[in-house]
Amino acid sequence: MAKASDALAPAASTIDAREAAHFGALAADWWNPRGTSAMLHRLNPVRLKFIRAAVDSHWDTDAAAFRPLLGRRALDVGCGAGLLAEPLARMGATVTAIDAAPENIGAALAHAEASGLAIDYRAGGIEQVAGARFDLVTALEVIEHVTDPAAFVAGLAAALAPDGLLILSTPNRTALSRLAMVGVAEGLGAIPRGTHDWDKFLTPDELVALLEAEGLAIGERRGIGWSPTAGFRIGDDERLNYILTARPR
Predict the structure, then answer these.
(1) What is the spatial distance between Cα 61 and Cα 76, in angstroms, rounded to a whole number?
(2) CA–CA separation, 10 vs 50, rounded Å?
(3) Would you say 173 and 205 are in contact if contact means Cβ atoms under 8 Å apart?
(4) Is the dihedral of CA 159, 248, 68, 77 positive or negative?
(5) How is the beta sheet containing 94-99 ordered, strand by strand?
């Protein structure tokens, strides 16, 4: 069943203690689709659809296969309470998932146990998996919360197997994201106040430059938009949020 690592490494230099405390305080409510993580619950199906298509394309797997990641190792960085780690496990992957907030790991362990899923949850930063290699590495809505994005990307790249696939998503630093995510969503309580620091958002060009500096080739890049009628959806508009793939050259 799900287990925590017995030997935990020291806190990673990319961890922002204030950010970790903020998200740790939300741990007990993480799996409530109408709670403080409601926006993540709405966003998750869109991200999973992109991930599934990327996996099928990268490894030429059958789009109808129930467990396309069977036999592969996956790492979810900044896993929260497991909203992505659990679907990856159900897709057949052997999953390791790490988060800076120990409270999130506690909630993730409890939920995975109740769901009958074997996931290796670890509290800490990317250094938790130093020396290990994974076929799939994901870091969704995480890089905007770390202290050193370049070091964070370097850690992700180091964890990627030679034929691996890296998937990241993050808000774009635009006038629209400042208005929608910080001004409106946090102002009206749809997202907990203090979740985002707009100045830490990365533009697509900035993130691509960090990835390419680590020897990674960029694959597909798509925007994640939102509308009152359709909710979140993948498209060409990157002004709010975007998701991309990368692989070793």
Answers:
(1) 21
(2) 33
(3) no
(4) positive
(5) 3-4, 119-123, 94-99, 73-77, 134-140, 160-171, 241-248, 216-227, 231-235
Phi-psi region of 97 (alpha: psi -120 to 50; beta: other; left: phi over 0): beta
Cα–Cα distance measured from residue 69 to residue 38, given in angstroms and rounded to the nearest whole number: 27
Residue with tokens 């199906």: 45
172 close to 222: Cβ distance less than 8 angstroms: no
Strand partners, 75: 96, 137
* Domain spans, the chain: 3-248
CB of 98 within 8 A of CB of 123?
yes
3-state secondary structure of 170: strand
Q: What is the pTM of this model?
A: 0.92
Superfamily for domain range 3-248: Vaccinia Virus protein VP39 (3.40.50.150)
Query: pLDDT tens digits, the chain, 249 residues: what are they?
Result: 544 443 333 334 699 999 999 999 999 999 999 998 998 999 999 999 999 999 999 999 999 999 999 999 999 999 999 999 999 999 999 999 999 999 999 999 999 999 999 999 999 999 899 999 999 999 999 999 999 999 999 999 999 999 999 999 999 999 999 999 888 888 887 888 888 899 999 999 999 999 999 999 999 999 999 888 889 999 999 999 999 999 999
Three-class secondary structure of residue 140 per DSSP = strand
Structure tokens of 16? 């922002």
